[in-house]
Amino acid sequence: MNEAVFLLLGSNLGQREALLTEAIRSLSHFSTSPLRCSSLYETAAWGIEDQASFLNIAIGMRCGLQPEVLLQEMSQIEERLGRQRSLVWGPRTLDIDMLLWGQRIIHSEALQVPHPRLPERRFALAPLAEIAAAHIHPEAGCSIAELLAACSDPLPVMRLGMLPGLPGTEPQNLVS
User: Fold this and answer.
1) Does the domain at residues 3-117+156-161 carry the CATH identifier 3.40.50.300?
2) Which one of the listed residues 36, 92, 121, 122 is annotated catalytic?
3) Which of 16, 83, 121, 122 is catalytic?
4) Do residues 11 and 19 lie in contact, with contact meaning Cβ atoms separated by under 8 Å?
5) Mean pLDDT for each consecutive 10-residue tract of the chain (176 residues)?
6) Given Cys at both, which of 38, 68, 111, 166 links 127, Cβ 3.0 to 4.6 Å?
């Protein structure tokens, strides 16, 4: 237990930076070590492209919870911050995706880890590579950096810099 967990947070409605900051602060309560946060990225919407761009950030943490319990906590944070599930890939105040949980492979009705579309999504790989470039994807068998280099997703991803106001987080690799 207490494995490296990697999440992606995104927002394209409301006060995006404030929502991401609050979500990260809430998630930090479940971490047994300081969070590692990527830079903030502005990314085009994926799936339904006719909507506002997203702000995305990857975080890494060590977690003593079971994956399903953290998933429930993530859903509660999304709901508390105004997430309404009405349209798949539609606009949202907050989206939190579990990308990786150490080297675990989880295929249950509620949870798919590694995230099944991670290798094809530049908006997830770019921030994740910033904090976990050497982490080996347990199904693909290659590093996150290699997945990013091979990603054919043409949608633009622009690095904006660090999200202000997150004391206790560091933009460096979390050893898995």
Assistant:
1) no
2) 92
3) 83
4) yes
5) 90 92 93 90 83 93 93 92 67 91 94 95 96 96 97 94 68 44
6) 38
Residues paired with residue 41 on neighbouring β-strands, in sequence order: 56, 159
Closest residue by Cα to residue 30 from 8, 3, 11, 55: 3
97 is known as an active-site residue: yes
Q: How is residue 142 written in tokens?
A: 């290659």
What is the SS3 assignment for 62? strand
What is this structure's pTM?
0.90
Which member of 95, 121, 122, 153 is catalytic? 95
pLDDT tens-digit readout, 79-113:
888 766 665 656 788 999 999 999 999 999 999 99
For 97, other C-beta atoms within 10 Å of its C-beta total 18
| Residue 92 annotated to the active site | yes
Q: How far is residue 154's CA from residue 65's CA, in Å, rounded to a whole number?
A: 36
pLDDT of residue 163: 85
3-state SS of 108-127?
A: CCCCEECCCCHHHCHHHHHH
> Which is the catalytic residue, given 97, 121, 122, 153?
97
